[in-house]
Amino acid sequence: MRLRNLTAAITVTAALGLGMAASGGTASAGTGDAPAPTAPACDTSALRIAFDGKAHYSAPGEQIPVIVHLTNTSGTACSLQGFPDVDLNAGSDTWSLLHNNDDHIPVTLTPGTSAHFAITYISWQEGMGTEFDATSATITLPGATTSVTLPWPGSSIVGQNGATHPGTYVGPISL
What we know:
By secondary structure, the chain is mainly beta. It is 12% helix and 33% strand.
């Protein structure tokens, strides 16, 4: 009996270690045990995807959240889970944003309801390093094969597209 308990403990410990290694060494409560979505995945064509007006400006160098709303315009429920991929575009330059480490859970959208996610960025001003003058954002929802490109509502961004922990990133989809 002791050998079986020891084997089970080693198996659980190894699984936890592998999970942490796969996620970059950071354990995230809730993401691995998230319940399965109760509705089929939302197709991009079933959603109205829009920025929440203009970005709320603050002092240059501070982080500014820009909210993206996802509204189910179809006649049936659908689900989303995780992080959208976001590419900021400035002329011929593209910056694929990293995801933050926030937990995420499945979100089910009934017809007419909305979810959202935030793109957080650091506003740029002269003397703050490289400027990334974004003109649009290309958004691809989790599991989707089609993208939507929207005009960028924010100001110029401090260019950190080579950083491993940039202050500009994408959060998970939530209600």
